[in-house]
Amino acid sequence: MExxxxxxxxxxxxxxxxxxxxxxxxxxxxxDGAKPAFSVEPVLEFAALSLAEGYTVSVQWYGxxxxxxxxxxxxxxxxxxxxxxxxxxxxxxxxPKEGSLLQGTWSRLSDGYEGxxxxxxxxxxxxxxxxxxxxxxxDGWLRETGAAGDWSVKAAGVWxxxxxxxxxxxxxxxARTLLGAEELESYKDxxxxxxxxxxxxxxxxxxxxxxxxxxxxxxxxxTGAWNLAVGAPMLTGEF
Length: 239
Hints:
The chain has helices at 2-18, 41-50, 67-78, 128-145, 168-179, and strands spanning 56-64, 93-95, 102-108, 116-124, 148-158, 182-188, 192-198, 213-219, 226-232. The protein has 239 residues and is an alpha+beta fold. The chain is globular, with a radius of gyration of 18 Å.
């Protein structure tokens, strides 16, 4: 636990150095103008090529809804997920419907947040296709009703390359060849490498920046393996 706490402190210090402290804790908020169609497949493909079996993927939506939109979203979710609302800590359930093992969390924040809501769907890497389909379906409904908010996507697991090698160049190379990504900034410190990229091949972008992809590498001091997290437009929460 002490080691993990130290890693989190270092990682957050790195994000601060990148100027990403606040952006990395919450998904990007909605901006003006038309938003690109929901598409997380490029990030999921990146994860499948760079992460070993057993990795996880998730999509998150954070935004604002009125009561009518909330009621209609609840009806939509009931057809594919078993979700509970929570004004406090997230409540998670697993729905095995149609062979899928997606986990869903639906949180309606308190009245003090004026209807702000948070939706999270998570699955193992083998269920990435079902996750993308579910997110796309929900995104279409959100657009139709005019609910204002933004998506982010994250995949995390063990880098599938040779642990004896430094994965930094391999990850950067995959971002370049698969996503046409150009590195904007990077941070390195004691077995941690965080990098921020721009690319036109991902339909998510952090408001007010060129950022569309973030990667974070961390070496496990006990096993020697490299953990990798990748997210768009930026990584959110702990990683």
